[in-house]
Amino acid sequence: MKIGICCDHAGVEYKNKLISYLLGKGHEMVNFGTDSTESCDYPDFAHPLANAVESGEVDCGIAICGTGNGMAITLNHHKGVRAGLAWNVEVAKLVKQHNNANVLVVPARFASYNMVNAMVRAWMSEEFAGGRHQRRIDKITNY
Ligand code: RB5
Q: Which of 9, 37, 85, 99 is the Cys-Cys partner for 105 at CB 3.0 to 4.6 Å?
């Protein structure tokens, strides 16, 4: 899979570890930054990832900031993005099964790297359940 990834200063360490891990699993990674631990603004990195998901440049994305909320809120401004914030493995599974999230968002300051790695694996290995969940997804942008 071709996976886009981005973070702010809070998520650089986890992003770099995830890139190494996922490259090792044979995935292609597109890094949208930041690559610095200097304080920065998460929308500057979330929007380029969202554009790549919307255009099909990448198959899916992973975004990391301190709480995950800044990334999720920004990413979800894009109609072609469903960014789901996860904080444990069960939520990471459900965000694919029920919400078909095409971007997984994780909180660098509130989850260990091992938990983040486990959430990424869980989200990537689950399938969207469809059915009533598709009906609900269809209503998200229909208002
Ligand atoms: C950065 O201090 C922090 O605000 C950011 O990483 C994120 O948690 C925002 O939602």
A: 85
Going from the Cα of 130 to the center of ligand 1, the distance in angstroms, rounded, reads 33
Distance CA(12)–CA(14), nearest Å, equals 6
CB 118 within 8 A of CB 89: yes
What pLDDT is recorded for position 143? Answer: 87
Phi, psi of 59 (to 5 degrees): -75, -30
The minimum-distance atom of ligand 1 relative to the CA of 108 is 6
C-alpha of residue 26 to centroid of ligand 1, in Å? 30
The answer, yes or no, to whether any atom of ligand 1 lies below 6 A from the CB of 67, is: yes
Residue 84: its H or E element: strand 83-85
The pLDDT score that the predictor gives to residue 105 is 99
